[in-house]
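Please check this.
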Amino acid sequence: MTNCLNKTGSASLSEADLRSFGRSTGLRLKGKDPEKYGSIVRALEAGCSLRELARIFKISKNTAGAICLRELGQEGLKKATIRNLQRLVHESSSDLLDSIDDLSPMQKATVMGIAADKLDGMTEPRLETPSLQVNQIQLTANISDEAVSRLVETAINKSAKKTIDV
């Protein structure tokens, strides 16, 4: 674990987390220009993507990612990714609506099917089925090995005239 603290003050970042952004850490920037570093963190919290941060603040995308991971933690990185995906879907759907007249009938049918499926999934509540759990139960008979052996011998010989109490 590193000595880096996230917003909650807990050390939750591993060395592997920080290495995921290569050699970039953002610590030099934090020491050299704390005002710029603070602006980057505020932009991250406002929903700026790593690519936008890199372009606006003239830093590498890896440095922006390392700062995001350090300051917002894994959960913050996940939330930022979800926000970016939502924005991507919104912008893509707007572009698709603008170019719908240029699509072939087959492309329109595909787009309509996917859109209807997604819309249906968003509007109807999801029914979660409980998972099936199989419990293995081991039953042991209340009979001795000797009694089983006598029972088998008697069945094989078929000449048993006496009753075996089990």
Remarks:
- The chain has a mean pLDDT of 77.
- Residues 61-98 form the longest helix (38 residues).
- Helices lie at 15-19, 27-32, 34-46, 50-57, 61-98, 105-123, 145-157.
